[in-house]
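queue> pop job 88
queue> type: inverse folding (structure -> sequence)
queue> payload:
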């Protein structure tokens, strides 16, 4: 799909009209020079490797992979956590690092699922001014188990 470019140095309005002739959308823009783009002006996803731990104790073997897209101060993160071996002490929430510090307020903006064993629905909790995501089940239960694979997407405001 090609981008749509509009040029009108004197400003004004643009009506986008449906095939049946009804006016669906009017875009008004100020006088300016240059070209405005409507379309896929957002950058590509960027890979990052989250550090994972547990709220209580530690894993014997766990890994994570992720990617993010930054749109202004909005950050969309998609990550996967694989727990191979829990060990004796890991418990509670999975903790995963975020690519950017969150804004100065608490945010709950994630959803996901444990896909290998339980099928539990998950949520993401981000404390204010934090680089850490806390992953629990929808009812605040633990998401930790040998062989568990957690897939989560979270959207949050960066600082």
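queue> result:
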């Amino acid at each position: 799909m090609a981008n749509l470019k509009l040029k009108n140095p004197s400003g004004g309005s643009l009506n986008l009209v449906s095939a049946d002739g009804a006016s669906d959308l009017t875009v008004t823009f100020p006088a300016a020079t240059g070209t405005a783009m409507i379309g896929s002006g957002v950058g590509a996803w960027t890979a990052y490797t989250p550090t994972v731990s547990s709220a209580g104790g530690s894993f014997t073997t766990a890994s994570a992979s992720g990617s993010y897209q930054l749109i202004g101060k909005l950050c969309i993160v998609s990550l996967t956590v694989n727990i191979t071996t829990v060990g004796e002490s890991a418990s509670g929430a999975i903790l995963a690092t975020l690519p950017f510090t969150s804004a100065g307020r608490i945010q709950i903006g994630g959803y996901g699922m444990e896909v290998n064993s339980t099928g539990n629905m998950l949520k993401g909790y981000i404390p204010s001014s934090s680089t850490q995501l806390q992953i629990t089940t929808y009812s605040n239960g633990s998401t930790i188990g040998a062989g568990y694979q957690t897939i989560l997407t979270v959207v949050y405001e960066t600082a």
